[in-house]
Amino acid sequence: MDQDKPSLSKDPDIHFRECGSGPPLLLIHGLLATGVMFDPVADALARHHRLIIPDLRGSGKSRHLPPPLSAKQQAEDLARLLDYLDIQSADKAYAYVLAHAGATLPKHRHLVQDEILLIQSGTAHVSLGEEERDLHAGGLVFVPANTWIGGKNIGTEPVALTFIFSAPGFEETMRCNSVPAGETPTTITPEEQLACAHIGHAESAGRPEKPKQ
Fold it and tell me: How far apart are CA 174 and CA 197, in angstroms?
């Protein structure tokens, strides 16, 4: 990978790394992590993408930056970074954590995006299409668009997953299913879940109605 670069964007100055060439791919690490979490897949992704790998405010080499550490501030930091790099849009990566033994990733599929899953810790039983197997830390799964995927934490420690999509969209489903930081979670109905899935071009095995075009 290319060496780390300090951002030249002004106030705040989040740290980031760049490598590769091609369409831009912004890799956003999860809570209690840093951009280093993407090292196992960075070289492979850099063959086809220009990677931008920041350390978010309060993490890694950006840990010296002052609060707030809110989602709004993090989004503003990333927007400022992309503006500095003159990037109008980028594919994105997200971290998802199965926080306890027995937790499940419900069976679903993404209708227009390919997906890469990287298991960073723990042990998971993963189903992909007609295949099933147990995967451990370092396991990598390629999920073609329109392919059913599901999983379960079968170990005793949390399973940390990084998932990367070939095109933006699914983040809108995540926002729709969530509440802003600091707010109390509320119950979401099956109908509301289906509506959220429509937004991100996703489909649940339990609710297979096709999203509206």
Answer: 9
Q: With respect to CATH, is domain 94-204 assigned 2.60.120.10?
A: yes
| 4-89 carries CATH number 3.40.50.1820 | yes
Q: Is the pTM of this model over 0.70?
A: no
Orientation angle between helical segments 190-199 and 170-177, nearest 10 degrees? 150
Report CA-CA distances (Å) from 52 to 2, 30, 120, 203.
11, 15, 20, 29
Per-residue pLDDT tens over the stretch 169-207? 776 777 787 777 667 877 888 888 788 888 878 888 765
On whether the CB atoms of residues 90 and 131 are closer than 8 A, the answer is no
Q: Where are the domains of the chain?
A: 4-89, 94-204
Distance CA 165, CA 111 (A): 12
Q: Residue 189's Cα: distance from chain center in Å? A: 24
DSSP for 34-68? -GGGGHHHHHHHHTTSEEEEEPPTTSGGGTTSPSP
